């Protein structure tokens, strides 16, 4: 499933050496020079941001103790899928310069199959991860007293995500082949489908990686939203703590909903273009849709791989702090907590020495009870506040 494949562009008869359009590939296809430059710059930016951002997300989730929640683990799984898309970008960029030209040998055939299936694999794994995240968040909101997403359930969910992803990419791996161009010495990496198989496969992909997952996500978030914006968390005796918990939960849910919306908007143009190719191929060959559109539209989806980590930093204080700590060598949350404890003790000691507070005035027993109560409250709603 390559958005730039088989568009049927031909070289104009009056093309000269002074033309501003660059000839690329071995079959006379052409891409305007400004599109080559623009797409290359965009690709470099996306690769840098996506590689750094998603790598940091994975590193943070698996090295910071308080970030090892079920939701964050699924976010890290989606970050891995985004890295898979990032690895595929150089191959996608190759089409702008040399079109379908490829190299032979066994390794050329293996890489042809890998790169053609990596895009679908990344897209499928990302949207399936979003479905799992939406279910996890919704269960936490609808059933706050039950821990449904246990470690075993989470491992099973991630395994199913990648098994389903692999199942979707197998037909594409089989169809992607190195083909010797007739009358030339060049090899091409193409999808070679039996009659009607491409139509069936692309329609199935559109349904299973876009329509059905986004419908499920919309439904469960609607149910969770109705519950979240109209209830109180159990066991919250303190009004301030209750408001803080509600605000954190809403902020976390808003972040995940935003991620889904951006994902849907980013991939919609590409999915629409694929459906046009399936059901109205003559529209593409008739140049009704400008050539530039075919090269620009897919990049909305590819950019999504770089956008997700930015959304986490914008919406989540925990991710924002950890990104700052790693990139700017800031203090960890443990260090900040220790400094706060030391400062509190110094303040109490100063006030005691000045006679403004007496040791007997500090209700230690009461404080211990309050601390234990707060810890109990935190455990009850930790699965609601885990990413905020």
TrEMBL record:
InterPro entries xrefs: GPCR_Rhodpsn, GPCR_Rhodpsn_7TM
Principal subcellular localization: membrane
Top-level taxon: Eukaryota
Pfam families reported for this sequence: 7tm_1 (PF00001)
Subcellular location per the Swiss-Prot or TrEMBL entry: Membrane
PROSITE patterns the UniProt entry points to: G_PROTEIN_RECEP_F1_1, G_PROTEIN_RECEP_F1_2
A GO CC annotation given for this chain: plasma membrane
Membrane topology qualifier: Multi-pass membrane protein
Chain segments annotated as transmembrane: 37-62, 74-93, 113-135, 156-175, 204-230, 251-273, 293-315
Domain G-protein coupled receptors family 1 profile: 53-312
Record-linked SUPFAM superfamilies: Family A G protein-coupled receptor-like (SSF81321)
Family named by the database record: Belongs to the G-protein coupled receptor 1 family.
Protein's name according to its UniProt entry: Somatostatin receptor type 5
Any GO molecular function: G protein-coupled receptor activity
UniProt keyword terms in alphabetical order: G-protein coupled receptor, Membrane, Receptor, Transducer, Transmembrane, Transmembrane helix
PANTHER family: LEUCOKININ RECEPTOR, LEUCOKININ RECEPTOR-RELATED
């Amino acid at each position: 499933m390559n958005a730039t494949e088989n568009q049927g562009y031909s070289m104009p008869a009056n093309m000269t050496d002074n033309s501003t359009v660059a000839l690329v590939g071995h079959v006379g296809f052409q891409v305007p020079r400004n599109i080559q430059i623009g797409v290359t710059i965009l690709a470099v930016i996306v690769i840098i941001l996506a590689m750094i951002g998603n790598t940091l997300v994975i590193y943070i989730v698996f090295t910071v103790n308080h970030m090892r929640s079920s939701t964050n683990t699924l976010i890290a799984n989606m970050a891995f899928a985004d890295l898979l898309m990032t690895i595929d970008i150089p191959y996608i960029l190759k089409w702008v310069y040399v079109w379908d030209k490829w190299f032979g040998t066994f390794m050329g055939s293996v890489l042809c199959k890998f790169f053609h299936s990596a895009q679908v694999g990344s897209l499928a794994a990302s949207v399936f991860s979003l479905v799992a995240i939406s279910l996890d968040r919704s269960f936490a909101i609808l059933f706050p007293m039950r821990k449904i997403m246990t470690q075993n359930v989470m491992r099973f969910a991630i395994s199913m995500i990648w098994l389903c992803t692999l199942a979707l990419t197998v037909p594409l791996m089989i169809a992607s082949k190195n083909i010797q161009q007739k009358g030339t010495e060049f090899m091409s990496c193409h999808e070679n489908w039996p009659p009607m198989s491409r139509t069936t496969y692309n329609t199935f992909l559109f349904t299973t990686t876009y329509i059905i997952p986004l419908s499920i996500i919309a439904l469960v978030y609607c149910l969770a939203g109705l519950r979240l914006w109209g209830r109180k968390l159990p066991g919250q005796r303190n009004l301030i703590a209750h408001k803080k918990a509600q605000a954190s939960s809403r902020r976390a849910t808003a972040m995940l909903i935003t991620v889904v919306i951006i994902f849907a908007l980013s991939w919609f143009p590409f999915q629409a273009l694929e459906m046009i190719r399936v059901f109205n191929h003559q529209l593409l060959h008739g140049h009704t849709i400008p050539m530039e559109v075919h090269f620009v539209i897919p990049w909305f989806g590819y950019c999504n791989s770089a956008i997700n980590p930015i959304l986490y930093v914008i919406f989540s204080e925990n991710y924002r702090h950890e990104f700052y700590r790693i990139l700017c060598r800031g203090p960890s949350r443990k260090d900040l907590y220790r400094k706060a404890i030391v400062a509190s003790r110094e303040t109490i000691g100063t006030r005691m020495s000045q006679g403004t507070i007496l040791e007997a005035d500090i209700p230690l027993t009461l404080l211990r009870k309050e601390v234990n109560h707060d810890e109990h409250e935190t455990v009850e709603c930790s699965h609601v506040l885990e990413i905020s």
